[in-house]
Amino acid sequence: MTSLHDVSRAMILAGPGRALTMGRREPGVPNAGQILIGVKACGVCRTDLHIVDGELRWPGHPILPGHEVVGTVLETGAGVEGFSPGERVGVPWLGWTCGLCRYCLSGRENLCDRARFTGYQLDGGYADHLVADARYSFRLPAAYGDAEAAPLLCAGLIGYRALSMAGDAEHLGIYGFGAAAHIVAQVARYQGRTVYAFTRAGDASAQAFARGLGAAWAGDSTQLPPEPLDAALLFAPVGALVPQALRATAKGGTVVCAGIHMSDIPAFPYDILWGERRILSVANLTRRDAVEFLALAPKVPVRTAVETFPLEQANEALARLREGRINGAAVLIP
Ligand SMILES: [Zn+2]
Ligand SMILES: [Zn+2]
Fold first, then answer.
1. What would the pLDDT profile of 12-69 be if each residue is shown by its tens digit?
2. Suppose 243 and one of 91, 156, 264, 268 were both cysteines; which one would form an S-S bond, judging by CB atoms 3.0 to 4.6 Å apart?
3. CB neighbours (10 Å) of residue 279?
4. Which ligand has an atom closest to residue 102 CA?
5. Which ligand ends up closest to the CA of 113?
6. Cis peptide before 269, with omega less than 30 degrees from 0?
7. Closest ligand relative to 111 C-alpha
8. Could you give the C-alpha distances from 40 to 47, 74, 180, 182, 314, in angstroms and in order?
9. Which ligand sits closest to the CA of 101?
């Protein structure tokens, strides 16, 4: 007799540069502290592309990607608090931290030396089922459908963390207008900031999408905005954007690199950094970011634009994301 513990379809990545293939995965019985989740939707993130393309270090085993997981709790392991079977739950990128290192002990678990990430070292949500650590899983705002909630879990959380790094910047530039940007733009407008959207050259569709979300200006990433930026958030993984963003940024401004991978940053003259401009990166998320953002999103209210694909079309969804042919976020439905 089969049970949900031994039958789960999963789109598995056997090695970098390969296509994902449909296979079987045994999600197993949840251990102490874990929950077994029936996946309802899983977002497709640019980080998944970096993993497929071999731009992140290979963890040494086949990968079950997906770190924007929305599902229903089916079973709880011993000692799980806060979740009961039947409840909706979200699982983000940060899947486990040690709790002991200097980063964990100073409120910076996003930098934990031994952190494990969902859909990378840990199994992710490109599957029917997933076992996750309840301590790193979250309740989701009721206002969102399953597919609409999925992009909140990485595009939203990492975007929110990146936006926090912009401090009180009034004029905010966003480079790369995909899943994270379309959420961050709404939060930034809610906070009273003016948003300038930068896209691939000539991408009229993305520029119109940005204007529709309240951007005061949208143009090519090589252009200068009508006003100097107080901060620029870079979601596109293109190192050449760093000097371009510095040129668009006012004295004292900040350029935030929000992706996990970026092509090399070309050499640039010191005078575009001079004037106390800063460049920094955003790495991962803390559980506190998740709690804060998931409470804020329905107040804005953030609306997510999603394009859904059946689970077995994960490769197609990744290809479309690579080509920049998704307005908003791609979401897999098992
Ligand atoms: Zn740690
Ligand atoms: Zn992500």
1. 999 999 999 999 988 889 999 999 999 999 999 999 999 999 999 999 999 999 999 9
2. 268
3. 17
4. 1
5. 1
6. no
7. 1
8. 20, 12, 21, 22, 15
9. 1
Calpha distance 289→309 (Å, rounded): 28
Query: In this structure, which amino acid lies at residue 55?
Result: E
Distance set, CA 85 to CA 35, 40, 185, 191, 217 (Å): 9, 14, 35, 37, 46
Provide the token pair at 167: 């401090």
3-state helix, strand, coil in the chain (%, to 5): 25, 25, 45
The alpha carbon of 105 and the centre of ligand 1 are apart by a number of angstroms equal to: 7
Structure tokens at 193: 């900031």
pTM: 0.95
As a whole number of angstroms, the distance between CA 255 and CA 165 comes to 9
Q: What is the pLDDT of residue 262?
A: 96
Ligand 2 centroid distance, CA of 154 (Å): 5
pLDDT of 4 > 60? The answer is no
Which amino acid type is present at position 223? Q
Would you put residue 14 in left (φ > 0), alpha (ψ -120 to 50) or beta? alpha
Q: Ligand 1 center to residue 99 CA distance, Å? A: 5
- pLDDT tens by residue, 81-114: 999 999 999 999 999 999 999 999 999 999 999 9
Q: Is 151 exposed, middle or buried (0-12, 13-18, 19+ CB in 10 A)?
A: buried
Distance 328 CA to ligand 2 centre (A): 14
Q: What is the pLDDT of residues 285-324, one digit of tens each?
A: 999 999 999 999 999 999 999 999 999 999 999 999 999 8
Q: Is the Cβ–Cβ distance between 252 and 246 less than 8 Å?
A: no
